[in-house]
Amino acid sequence: MTYILKLLVLGALLAWMPNNAVAEDDGHGHEAPAKDHLEEGITLSPAQTTLANIKIAVLEPRPMTYQVYAPGEVLANGYTSYLVSPRVDSVVLHRHAGLGDYVQKGQALVTLFSENVAEAQAAFRVADSEWQRVKKLGRKAVGDTRFVAAQANYEADYGRLLAFGLSQEAIRDLGKKSQTLGEYTLVAVIAGAVLSDDFRQGQRVEPGESLMELADEQELWIEARLAPTSKLEVPAGTEAQVHIVGEVFAASVTQEAHTIDLQTRTRVVRLLVNNEAHRLHPGMFAEVYFSYTTKELILAVPESALMRGGDGDWTIFIEEEPGHFEAHEVELGRSLDQWREITGVPAGSRVVMEGAFFVASEIAKSGFDPHNH
Questions:
Q1: Backbone CA torsion sign across 188, 191, 197, 200
Q2: DSSP 15-66
Q3: I need a surface site. Which of 41, 209, 240, 342 has the fewest CB within 10 A?
Q4: What is the DSSP string of 260-291?
């Protein structure tokens, strides 16, 4: 009984003694020095702190600049591009420009033939001849009725040819020299690159059918797509960075659609990007990053400063005394690029911004629950 009583007393004493008072044998009959840590954390020497590259900073409320990502695509500027198409049933005779060509304003693109155009050209020749004769004689000589009728017929036939797509120069030339009636040439109304030319010579085309698409690539559109539930505000003028094939371009928001795209179920935000160097082309994929600054002052730490505790809670490590670190649970807020908004600790705390993993490992090796559970 006496032996058993002694064992019980010894066990009670060991349980009462602080952990760091228990010495270990170093294998040579000598007691090894205990680890230098306090009851709820770990104390590291300056050498350990330097070796582990532990960086400490004072946690202060401040505005945070951050970016929000959205996938996007480069598109032709719909306000400076032009669709070349016939306005009357026609047959393609000749092609004068091809895919990728850069054309100047007024340059010939495609020559077509149309019976309707032939009739309109013939009528214009008659009306033009009559109008030139009447105009030369004068209103008094021919009378008001003939003068007004000749002028009206001329203007009507002139406008009809314009509506068919003939240029003013081509219409004027009808009255000056003999031409094959029915042939007409569509010319570039803007200077730009030929983005598409899906047609063949000899092909019959209908009114409005696309022959070519021209685009002025000095400025292009970037269409970014956001989740339909996103509450992100992107008013006109919002700055963004666009990453395309390893290059970064500055862009600004010009418009935001007020409907959800039925196919992709996303919010479409349109940006304008300068392309004077012609490094961008429609169809290229883009990564769009919208830049923001928080309106209020917040507390935030790098994502690397956050560690999971044994119970799954997020923690940061605070230097309570020089070299002594303790874990503190925090609540997470917004993700701000590589930073994270936190609550649950006071401003002015000295937080481990780098090297948190090493501190967590040392606390785990010491056998202490960082939450004092």
A1: positive
A2: HHS-GGG--EE-SSSSEEPPP---TTEEE--HHHHHHTT-EEEE---B--EE
A3: 209
A4: E-TTT--EEEEEEEE-TT----TT-EEEEEEE
How far is the C-alpha of 198 from the C-alpha of 254, rounded, in Å? 31
Structural contact between residues 59 and 347, judged by C-beta atoms closer than 8 angstroms: yes
pLDDT tens digit sequence for 157-171: 999 999 999 988 888
Q: Is 178 exposed, middle or buried (0-12, 13-18, 19+ CB in 10 A)?
A: exposed
How many residues in the chain? 373
* Cα–Cα nearest to 88, from 62, 117, 66: 117
Whether 314 and 306 have beta carbons less than 8 Å apart is answered as yes
pLDDT digits (tens, 9 = 90+) for 177-204: 667 899 999 999 999 899 999 899 999 9
CA–CA distance, 232 with 291 (Å, rounded to integer): 11
Return the percentage of the chain with pLDDT > 90, whole number.
59
Three-state DSSP class for residue 154: helix
Q: Which domains does the chain have, with CATH numbers?
A: 41-63+297-366 (2.40.420.20), 68-78+216-293 (2.40.30.170), 82-114+182-214 (2.40.50.100)
Q: Are strands 183-187 and 212-215 parallel, antiparallel or unpaired?
A: unpaired
How far is the CA of 128 from the CAs of 116, 124, 137, in angstroms? 18, 6, 14
Which one, of 369, 365, 340, 363, lies nearest residue 353 by Cα? Answer: 340
Of 318, 317, 345, nearest in space to 331 by CA:
345
Name the phi and psi angles at 19, rounded to 5. Answer: -60, -40
7's tokens:
């064992």
